[in-house]
């Protein structure tokens, strides 16, 4: 480091530079899980280089390094871009707030000043605002029935009333604008989310998550809030403590992340649900990274326990995805927090055996658990409810249940109007076979082909493609064809590369947009990466009937893009 400490940093990026490795390490270990979800080593280094380029010399960078570590490891790497933008633009208010955050005496309260920083950013963009008319209601229906220029708040917990009023007082009629300027909550297949779920802080710096009503899913937001009211009646506010079936010394705690407030902002005509942020790891991330079979089995046993408790209480939770289950592991206690109840059906009694089987034939098995668990794990977890080895693939019986949306889309894409139970199960078998994780024979790492379709639909939706869902269907058909034609792993390698390229471009663009203006706003789609992905999906879909042409096409694409073997499914 001594040899480069006084050089201009722009000339150090092509030399061995320990700063790149140091900042890359911060990013991989940071509070924001983006770089655990997207572990491409080049992404870490590229962002580290972008950060380094903002400093005039290595000496200044070295002095600032502890501040970068604080922002990345304790908060969010995107705050680094905001901080660097403030330095570049000599933003005295923002720099003063960051300086107070970096102060040693404030380290015991790491979230202090998060709201002030967000409010400073808000004032830069929304300098003028008027006092708003606020009504607190005891009737949640008013949130969904009134469309006037006022703010209507329904509170589940009155202890947050003062903090909400403080927030509304300082943002006035621009509450919606303030919430839309907060950072997205990253997810495994939706690292850049474009606005529905955001993470921020109240004026007392309590961390919260806001979920905005989606204009593309009419009625779902209201139904979810009604579902929370029913869950509250069934389970109450207090967590439920259970005995661990595998370890009597361990306790299992089940709790539901009820929103503490539902808000209608009549000035922006948007609705939001506010919940406390829970500092825990999703079961999705655990199943993605946990390699110890005994630990995986324990988590899946707990998942089955939670599933059966819901069944016993007459609850069919359609969104029982590992991403909606947060896990907090402490000595002797494992706490599971459940969230997202849009697709939930309530019964007047415990779910019958047939209802449980039908529920497991829905999205929770193949669509959700099937992309994270290997085949034997799924059979063990859903024993008695789900066993494809026992399916009768020759049955001519009519379908006794509503088809799963992904299967329905495939049937429609194939022009099939009527389908019997045997044909349905055959298609389901084919889908399961292309979504289950497998061990790459070269890297010895697990590859997750089921994530490709999720990423395709999400990022094409972010780019404004109205037919993003149809490309998810095409992705499944492409993988089924690749399985038939004997080039499955090569096609998976190609599509993962292209989908990850889109995601990486979005991550870089978000960081650069914040760096240039202190706020990312609506991200412009990365046209080249999205074009490459769509082109590949279209041509592979059109060629899927011919085995020889399909294999030749795959070989050409892999060669043209110079895609080789790599770790963690990234090439």
Characterization of the model:
- This protein has 571 residues and is α+β, with helices and mostly antiparallel strands.
- Among the domains are: 2-109, no CATH class; 111-219 and 258-277, no CATH class; 436-571, no CATH class.
- The protein has 22 helices and 16 strands.
- The protein has helices at 18-29, 34-37, 41-52, 58-75, 78-88, 92-102, 114-125, 141-145, 161-171, 175-180, 220-235, 283-289, 293-312, 353-368, 375-381, 405-413, 421-435, 450-462, 468-484, 488-517, 527-542, 547-560; strands at 134-137, 151-155, 183-184, 197-201, 207-212, 240-243, 251-256, 261-265, 270-276, 281-282, 315-317, 325-330, 333-338, 344-346, 438-439, 446-447.
- Strands 1-2-8-9-5-4-3 form a 7-stranded mixed sheet. It has a 5-stranded mixed sheet with strand order 6-7-13-12-10. Strands 11-14 form a two-stranded antiparallel sheet.
- The longest helix has 30 residues, at 488-517.
- The chain is globular, with a radius of gyration of 25 Å.
């Amino acid at each position: 480091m001594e040899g480069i400490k006084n050089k201009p940093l722009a000339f150090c990026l092509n030399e061995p530079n320990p700063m790149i490795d140091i900042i890359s390490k911060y990013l991989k270990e940071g509070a924001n899980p983006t770089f655990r979800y997207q572990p491409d080593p080049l992404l870490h280094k590229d962002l580290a280089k972008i950060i380094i380029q903002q400093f005039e010399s290595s000496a200044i960078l070295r002095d600032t390094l502890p501040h970068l570590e604080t922002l990345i490891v304790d908060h969010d790497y995107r705050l680094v871009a905001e901080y660097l933008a403030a330095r570049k633009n000599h933003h005295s208010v923002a720099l003063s707030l960051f300086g107070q955050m970096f102060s040693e005496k404030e380290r015991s309260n790491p979230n202090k000043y998060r709201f002030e920083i967000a409010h400073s950013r808000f004032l830069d963009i929304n300098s003028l605002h008027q006092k708003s008319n606020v009504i607190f209601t005891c009737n949640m229906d008013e949130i969904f029935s009134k469309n006037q220029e006022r703010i209507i708040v329904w509170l589940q917990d009155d202890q947050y009333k003062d903090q909400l009023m403080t927030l509304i007082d300082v943002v006035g009629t621009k509450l919606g604008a303030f919430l839309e300027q907060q950072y997205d909550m990253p997810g495994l297949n939706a690292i850049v989310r474009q606005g529905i779920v955001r993470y921020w802080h109240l004026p007392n710096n309590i961390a919260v998550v806001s979920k905005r009503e989606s204009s593309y899913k009419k009625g779902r937001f209201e139904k979810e809030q009604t579902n929370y009211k029913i869950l509250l009646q069934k389970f109450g506010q207090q967590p439920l403590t259970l005995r661990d079936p595998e370890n009597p010394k361990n306790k299992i705690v089940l709790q539901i992340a009820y929103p503490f407030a539902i808000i209608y902002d009549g000035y922006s005509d948007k609705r939001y649900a506010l919940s406390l942020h829970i500092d825990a790891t999703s079961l999705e991330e655990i199943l993605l990274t946990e390699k110890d079979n005994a630990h995986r089995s324990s988590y899946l046993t707990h998942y089955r326990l939670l599933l059966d408790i819901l069944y016993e209480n007459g609850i069919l939770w359609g969104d029982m995805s590992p991403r909606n289950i947060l896990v907090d592991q402490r000595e002797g206690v494992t706490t599971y927090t459940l969230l997202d109840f849009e697709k939930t059906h309530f019964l007047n009694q415990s779910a019958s055996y047939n209802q449980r089987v039908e529920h497991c034939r829905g999205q929770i098995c193949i669509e959700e658990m099937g992309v994270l668990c290997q085949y034997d794990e799924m059979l063990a977890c859903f024993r008695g409810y789900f066993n494809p080895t026992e399916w009768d693939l020759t049955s001519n019986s009519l379908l006794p249940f509503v088809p799963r949306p992904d299967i329905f889309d495939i049937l429609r894409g194939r022009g099939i109007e009527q389908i019997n139970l045997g044909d349905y199960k055959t298609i389901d078998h084919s889908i399961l076979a292309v979504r289950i994780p497998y061990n790459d024979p070269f890297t010895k790492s697990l590859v997750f082909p089921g994530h490709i379709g999720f990423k395709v639909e999400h990022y094409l939706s972010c780019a404004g493609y109205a037919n993003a869902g149809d490309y998810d269907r095409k992705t499944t058909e492409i993988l089924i064809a690749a399985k038939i034609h004997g080039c499955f792993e090569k096609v998976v390698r190609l599509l993962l590369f292209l989908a990850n390229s889109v995601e990486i471009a979005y991550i870089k663009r978000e960081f650069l947009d914040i760096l240039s203006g202190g706020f990312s706003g609506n991200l412009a789609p990365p046209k080249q990466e999205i074009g490459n992905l769509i082109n590949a999906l279209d041509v592979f879909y059109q060629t899927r009937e011919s085995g020889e042409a399909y294999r030749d096409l795959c070989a050409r694409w892999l060669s043209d893009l110079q895609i080789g073997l790599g770790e963690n499914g990234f090439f």
